[in-house]
Amino acid sequence: MAKKILRGWDVTVKAFARRQCACTYSTLPEMPPCDFTPAPYKGKSYDESMKIRKENLTPALLTYYKKPVMIHQGYMQWLFDTDGKRYLDMFGGIVTVSVGHCHLKVTESARDQLGKLWHTTNIYLHPTIHEYAEKLAATLPGNLKVVYFTNSGSEANDLAVLMARMYTGVFDIVSLRNAYHGASPYLMGLTAMSSWRFNVPTGFGIHQSMNADPYRGPWGGENCRDSPSQVVGRPCDCGNGECKAGINYAEQLEDVLRFSMPKEKIGALFVESIQGVGGAVQFPKNFVKRAFDAVRARGGICIADEVQTGFGRTGDHFWGFQNHGVIPDIVSMAKGIGNGFPLAAVVTTPEIAQSMGNALHFNTYGGNPLACAVGSSVLDVIEEEKIQAHCAELGPYFILELRKLMDEFDIVGDVRGKGLMIGVELVKNRETKEALQADKVNAIWEEIKDSGILVGKGGFYGSVLRIKPPMCITKEDADFTVAVMRQAFKNHS
């Protein structure tokens, strides 16, 4: 009798174990195929590299994952580590690889220019900078015609701040809370996220307004965002093309302008089209337009930070600010502009550009021949391969597939985005929107990596999975990503 009971218990335990195993380790679909074979890696070992990183690189250098991935080679949407493992890159080198890792045409353009001229000062003429400046300016609306080339987004935003202050003669600038515009000493005050700010004097002349966030802010509902995915559980009584949340947040900005800025005239408003590092936060409809109107009514100018949202990523338009129905006075751009090559730019009007003639201004490497050849080739690829149209088509499908995860898992508090700039916010409690515990977010994030997909993290609490891939990804890549995330959520909910 005892043996029968033990045998029965044993069978029950094994059955339970099988069910648990099936639930925890169910078979994922195969990773989409790739016809590229990376070259064998012959460099320093992983352990040697980690030792050098610890001893010879700044300790402030952020490293992803418990066991960091050591990337050896890239091809389009794929990355390969030093052991030959393939990863689907759904973060694009922090929203930087736009048309694909080592895209053949861009690579050939760089190789061709390397054989002609690497560098010469822009005090001399060279063809590439003139050809590229004209081509880049042609993508922008209105009177945005004058281009200043730099090497990074922080440099570009630094210059935009200087330009605004020189033109208006006013030192004060306003940005939004939860914004990220760079981490240089000059920009640390403009960036309104405490995790990116050191305890040093910053922000003199910088003011922040309430972030216009329909999900976490006090106003916003189920019809406020320009996205296939709206906020859940917040009824919206907006009508006739008016977004009440947008009006309310714009009034908060006007309050800052009224009480915190110089009475006679203000300097500038600095705003991302969609907040990137802040977790793909989208503003309510018409908020940006109302904000621009309020700033200009007081003599200020408007600056659009397109470092992450430009070059067709949002799909419907080439530039993110166009989704808001506005034309800025200054536009900063970087990241996708060079498909990962160090390149950035500020574009403005001839009138504002004229103010920069009051003193000498020079950038040794900005607009060098190699960078301009790469940037020009990226624009060609975006046009020839219809990258923007691809984002407009694939983006809504991808977002709505991710949205289905909200119906399956309570930890998915919000899915948002436009085109291929997407955020998935994880929460402990949907009602309170309390962020999911860091250890659980990290466990999900690690499993997604172990399954062969690289995504980012962002948002104030680090609880937003950032999906901003090279814009060459396919529907199969999107489906595989959703399947991997579904399994990770199932294993850690």
Describe this structure in words.
- It holds the Pfam family Aminotran_3.
- Homotetramer.
- GO terms for molecular function: (R)-3-amino-2-methylpropionate-pyruvate transaminase activity; alanine-glyoxylate transaminase activity; beta-alanine:pyruvate transaminase activity; pyridoxal phosphate binding.
- Its cofactor is pyridoxal 5'-phosphate.
- The strands form three sheets. The chain has a seven-stranded mixed sheet, sandwiched between helices. Strands 11, 12, 13, 15 and 16 form a five-stranded antiparallel sheet that branches.
- Helix 4 packs antiparallel against helix 10 and helix 12 crosses helix 13.
- The protein is an alpha/beta fold.
- The chain starts with a helix and ends with a helix.
- Helices cover 36% and strands 15% of the residues.
- It is globular and about 65 Å long.
- It folds into two domains: 164 residues, Aspartate Aminotransferase, domain 1; 279 residues, 3-Layer(aba) Sandwich (Aspartate Aminotransferase, domain 2).
- A hairpin with a 4-residue loop joins strand 12 and strand 13.
Summarize this entry quickly:
36% of the residues lie in helices and 15% in strands. By secondary structure, it is an alpha/beta fold.
